[in-house]
Design goal:
Layout (H helix, E strand, L loop, with lengths): L15 H26 L3 E8 L2 E7 L7 H11 L4 H15 L4 H5 L17
Antiparallel strand pairs: 1-2
Length: 124
């Protein structure tokens, strides 16, 4: 049976060093194990944690050719390190590759229809 109890935010007092150590010793290995379980089952997985202001770690496994736009967007956000330009660049490249129906991407002149891959790009 699952324990649905949610502790109070910050109820375990930890120094930044303790949080980083907990991340390294507990969280990162647990997320890696979950990612491996997801890979074996064909489940796309993206996790992001901020254990101190600006100190983050992410774990992700997905097949871009099979992942939904929703999952790819989560991945781009997690992978951009808080840099909106990097995230938007990834989103625009994805939209060019896969097509989109976004009003905002249209305003940025990103074509709605996917580009045809060239021999040079091979679709990536």
């Amino acid at each position: 049976m699952l324990d649905n109890h949610v502790p109070e935010w910050g109820s375990i007092d930890m120094s930044p060093e303790e949080r980083e150590r907990w991340n390294d010793e507990r969280l990162a290995p647990a997320l890696l194990e979950l990612a491996r379980e997801c890979i074996a089952r064909g489940i796309h997985f993206v996790a992001f944690a901020e254990y101190a202001p600006g100190e983050t770690q992410r774990t992700a496994t997905l097949r871009f050719s099979e992942a939904s736009a929703k999952t790819r967007l989560v991945y781009y956000a997690a992978n951009s390190d808080g840099n909106i330009d990097a995230m938007l660049n990834a989103v625009c490249r994805d939209a060019k590759r896969n097509g989109h129906s976004s009003v905002y991407l249209k305003m940025l002149d990103v074509p709605c229809e996917p580009e045809q891959p060239t021999e040079e790009s091979d679709g990536h």
